[in-house]
């Protein structure tokens, strides 16, 4: 407007001067357009300079141009953060795929590796499908940063499926990658299949008994549990996987899946470097044993066959026949040992052999034990035949005797060693490797000696020895003297003589004076040093005390007023006060849930009031109210703006009357229990205070307790019904009770807070999922799923389930009902969701039935990462602001519809961190908010009133101080 007026003035001025020729006579249109463009450009430059100069005067806010660019900047931050998260997840999945490929190449050298190879290829195929689905999901959410991948470029990494095509034609890509598995609705099935593939791979990995890695087992078991949990939870969102809320939740799961993938990648890499060589060494060792047995058996069969040439013709007598029988048997056994050794060696080295637990027991025994048994039997038969051969050929007596004795000795040794081997195997199986065979033999020997029969035999032996010593004659006496000498020497060694007195003075030579002097040297010096240090510390303490005396007066007074035993040890976030908005169906700020890509583009909804930012700049503390001696848990203004109610951990709630200065209206004392929340009724005449297991209803004027309601379970939140003075909701675990008429069960959701739409038809709640539909729970490293629930009170139907990953704690609905503000724990910023009514496609009986659907509109990002104190709130008379407070004392105020940061209040220099914040919705002239702190102080913030405003104010500017009305309820 200003630029058009300047252009017209310039045109009129040039046309009114007579000495200046009129340019419009020759080329009016051309010259006029050039001059207009020059003037407009000049005005734009002047406007930018004026904005820059005005922004220098504001230290808390960026320039106006930054405000206008704040929305795309926030959206750009979200796009960049989302793309970085997906790229990190993609790198993690690619690293796992690379590690699986390396493991498969290394495992080819192992026997019985076909199972682990097949499971590894299936796992790689699953990773390819999941990565494609996550990319499609991310490309939908962040189209400017993530590009889609054509399905034609997908390659199936499962080599087991490719080998089937070598004998025939090459299959198409459609047969290699099934298109049905790449639909977003297949996410639950893909997660369940992923869990099954992980378990299959782990089972195949544990089929190698030579090496067991507990780290791999732990990480994969935890991943399998979480995958089944996510698959069960996602199964409830069938038909909604193209909704932005569900897509965002799936994208948020990439961080937790990526952590599991990283753990498995690291453990699998260590298994490839350590486990595979260990397994290979063990298998090579077993194969070497079989190879040695085969070599020995082959050599021994050659020896047996050679010796048979000397006896096969001897068939006359029984000795000759026995010799041939033993040697032929030895030859058979040696050949069987050699052949079975080669068979076992080939079987152990085969990659396609079955694992040990999938082979019949008799096959395992035959392959593993038969070569050694046959070789032992062959040696025994050969030795027996050799011994008989010496007698059959009439060898000499010495030759026959020596051969027989040596054969008996070697056979006994062979039998003893074989028995020892068999006993070791039996003890290992019976005792699980906890004890050795020698320990068992020693234990059995001790038990045998302790038997009564053995004790009697020992007594008899001792009695016989005494008789022999008494009647043995001279030999017995000599023996007795020798024994006596031995006993004497033993006694001397056992009881040596005591030390003489000459050793005593050597022990007393230590002078006591010397020891005392040493003690005094090391005891007096520290005392002197302590004296000097104590003087210095005393002087420093006095100096510090003098410097901090003024600042400590306030804390000392607070401590003196505090009740004994009440110490605040932890900080809990206050619960969200209920709102009473009306559902706005004709809001111009609404958007279609189908057009998700236009969320960021349609952020600016209308012109901002020109005096809004300057007015917020005048926001400053007006009054400090020191009425509590402990942490302020929650506070809330009444709907009519006349009262402010606070709740504290000092078991009291205070009602203030709002005016130019706030004055105490009533003090509501509670005998037992901490006050967690205050909630005003729609008229502002009744106040509801929530205790741990109950609630109390008070009158605001005189602070009288009208009713006390006890509940059997813990109450986490309360909310008045819109327009009601007698009914309210009580949230108790997974149930919501309408006191005192009805109750609503929310199944597996543990509700933290609820809010009611202005028409009283729908109930919105937030909280974590207690268990998946199949009863599973996530592992310790994974977070449980949280949900935003929309429940229709009239039809008792859950209209919408919206999953979120972060710890959601509070929910607030705007006055018109179309906007829902969600608050999270710790450092997660608040989010604004749009609630719209859409046609219920599942209800075929009622074609015009509608259900509510939530769509994410904005995320209110602060300029720096902060730790939020309590929930976020709507601010302003029309809920046009979003208000968040940090624990350090800073306050952020955003514009609701554009997510533009309007004002930032730096941390104030007062004691105590912020715990809660509340906005006075009754008026915008002036703006008023209240904050509670950790030390019990309530601070009131206001702006300068606009004298030119015609809006009425509910704040009473001249009001007499009422009499203090203490309320008490036992």
TrEMBL record:
WD repeats: 625-658, 928-941
GO cellular component: a single term: GID complex
Pfam families: WD40
Region of interest (Disordered), residue spans: 1-24, 50-72
The protein's name: WD40 repeat-like protein
Keyword list, A-Z: Membrane, Repeat, Transmembrane, Transmembrane helix, WD repeat
Keyword Transcription: no
Segments crossing the lipid bilayer: 290-314, 326-347, 372-391, 397-422, 463-480
GO biological process: proteasome-mediated ubiquitin-dependent protein catabolic process
Entry annotated with the keyword Cell membrane: no
Cited SUPFAM superfamilies: WD40 repeat-like
Superkingdom of origin organism: Eukaryota
Taxonomy of the source species: Eukaryota, Fungi, Dikarya, Basidiomycota, Agaricomycotina
């Amino acid at each position: 407007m200003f630029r058009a007026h300047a252009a017209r003035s310039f045109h009129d001025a040039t046309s009114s001067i007579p000495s200046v020729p009129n340019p419009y006579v020759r080329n009016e249109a051309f010259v006029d357009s050039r001059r207009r463009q020059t003037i407009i450009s000049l005005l734009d430059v002047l406007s930018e300079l004026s904005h820059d100069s005005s922004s220098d005067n504001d230290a808390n806010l960026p320039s106006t141009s930054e405000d206008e660019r704040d929305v795309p900047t926030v959206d750009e931050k979200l796009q960049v953060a989302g793309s970085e998260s997906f790229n990190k997840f993609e790198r993690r999945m690619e690293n796992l795929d690379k590690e699986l490929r390396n493991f498969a190449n290394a495992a080819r050298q192992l026997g019985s590796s076909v199972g682990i190879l097949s499971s590894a290829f299936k796992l790689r195929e699953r990773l390819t499908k999941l990565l494609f689905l996550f990319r499609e999901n991310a490309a939908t959410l962040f189209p400017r940063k993530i590009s889609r991948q054509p399905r034609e470029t997908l390659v199936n990494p499962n080599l087991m499926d490719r080998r089937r095509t070598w004998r025939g034609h090459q299959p198409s890509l459609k047969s290699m990658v099934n298109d049905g598995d790449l639909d977003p609705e297949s996410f639950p099935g893909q997660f369940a299949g992923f869990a099954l593939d992980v378990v299959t791979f782990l089972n195949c990995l544990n089929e190698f008994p030579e090496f067991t890695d507990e780290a791999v087992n732990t990480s994969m078991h935890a991943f399998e549990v979480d995958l089944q949990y996510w698959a069960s939870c996602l199964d409830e969102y069938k038909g909604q996987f193209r909704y932005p809320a569900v897509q965002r939740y799936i994208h948020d799961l990439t961080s937790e899946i990526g952590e599991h993938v990283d753990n498995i990648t690291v453990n699998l890499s260590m298994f490839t470097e350590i486990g595979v060589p260990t397994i290979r060494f063990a298998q090579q060792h077993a194969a070497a044993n079989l190879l040695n047995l085969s070599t020995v058996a082959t050599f021994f069969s050659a020896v047996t066959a050679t010796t048979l040439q000397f006896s096969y013709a001897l068939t006359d007598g029984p000795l000759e026949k026995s010799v041939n029988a033993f040697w032929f048997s030895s030859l058979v056994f040696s050949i069987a040992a050699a052949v079975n050794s080669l068979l076992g060696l080939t079987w152990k080295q085969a990659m396609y052999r079955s694992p040990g637990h999938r082979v019949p027991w008799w096959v395992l025994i035959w392959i593993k034990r038969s070569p050694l048994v046959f070789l032992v039997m062959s040696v025994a038969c050969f030795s027996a035949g050799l011994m008989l051969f010496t007698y059959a050929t009439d060898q000499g007596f010495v030759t026959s005797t020596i051969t027989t004795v040596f054969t008996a000795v070697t056979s006994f040794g062979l039998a003893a060693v074989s028995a020892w081997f068999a006993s070791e195997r039996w003890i290992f199986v019976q005792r699980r490797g906890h004890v050795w065979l020698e320990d068992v033999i020693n234990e059995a020997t001790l038990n045998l000696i302790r038997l009564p029969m053995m004790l009697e035999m020992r007594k008899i032996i001792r009695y016989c020895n005494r008789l022999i010593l008494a009647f043995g004659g001279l030999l017995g006496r000599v023996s007795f003297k020798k024994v006596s000498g031995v006993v004497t020497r033993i006694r001397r060694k056992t009881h040596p003589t005591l030390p003489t007195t000459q050793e005593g003075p050597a022990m007393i030579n230590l002078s006591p004076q010397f020891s005392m002097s040493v003690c005094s040297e090391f005891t007096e010096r520290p005392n002197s040093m302590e004296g000097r240090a104590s003087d210095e510390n005393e002087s420093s303490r006095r100096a510090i005390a003098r410097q901090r005396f003024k600042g400590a007066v306030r804390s000392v007074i607070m401590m003196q007023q505090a009740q004994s035993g009440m110490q605040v040890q932890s900080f809990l976030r206050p619960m969200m006060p209920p709102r009473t908005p009306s559902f706005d169906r004709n809001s111009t700020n609404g958007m279609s849930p189908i057009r998700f890509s236009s969320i960021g583009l349609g952020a600016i909804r209308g012109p901002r009031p020109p005096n809004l930012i300057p007015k917020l700049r005048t926001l400053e503390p007006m009054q400090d109210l020191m009425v509590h001696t402990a942490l302020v848990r929650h506070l809330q203004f009444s709907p009519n703006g006349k009262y402010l109610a606070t709740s504290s951990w000092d078991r009291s709630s205070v009602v203030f009357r709002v005016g130019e200065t706030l004055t105490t209206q009533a003090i509501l004392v509670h005998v037992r229990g901490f006050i967690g929340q205050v909630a005003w009724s729609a008229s502002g005449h009744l106040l509801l205070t929530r205790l741990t297991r109950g609630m109390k209803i008070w009158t605001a004027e005189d602070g009288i307790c009208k009713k006390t309601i006890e509940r059997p379970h813990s109450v986490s939140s309360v909310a008045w019904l819109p327009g009601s003075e007698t009914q309210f909701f009580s949230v108790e675990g997974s149930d919501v009770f309408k006191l005192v008429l009805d109750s609503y069960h929310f199944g597996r959701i543990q509700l933290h807070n609820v809010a009611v739409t202005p028409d009283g038809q729908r109930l919105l709640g937030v909280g974590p999922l207690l268990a998946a539909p199949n009863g599973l729970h996530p592992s310790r490293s994974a977070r449980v799923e949280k949900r935003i629930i929309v429940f229709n009170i009239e039809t008792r139907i859950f209209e919408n389930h919206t999953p979120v990953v972060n710890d959601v704690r509070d929910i607030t609905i705007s006055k018109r009902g179309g906007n829902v503000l969600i608050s999270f724990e710790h450092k997660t910023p608040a989010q604004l969701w749009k609630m719209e009514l859409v046609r219920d496609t599942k209800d075929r009986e009622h074609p015009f039935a509608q259900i509510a659907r939530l769509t994410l509109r904005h995320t209110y990002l602060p300029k720096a990462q902060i730790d939020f104190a309590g929930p976020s709130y709507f601010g302003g008379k029309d809920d046009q602001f979003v208000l968040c407070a940090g624990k350090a004392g800073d306050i952020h105020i955003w514009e609701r519809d554009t997510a533009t940061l309007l004002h930032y209040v730096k941390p104030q220099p007062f004691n105590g961190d912020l715990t809660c914040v509340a906005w006075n919705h009754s008026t915008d002239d002036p703006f008023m908010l209240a904050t509670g702190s950790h030390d019990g102080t309530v601070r009131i913030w206001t702006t300068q009133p606009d004298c030119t405003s015609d809006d009425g104010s509910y704040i009473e500017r001249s009001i007499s101080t009422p009499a203090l009305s203490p309320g008490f309820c036992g």
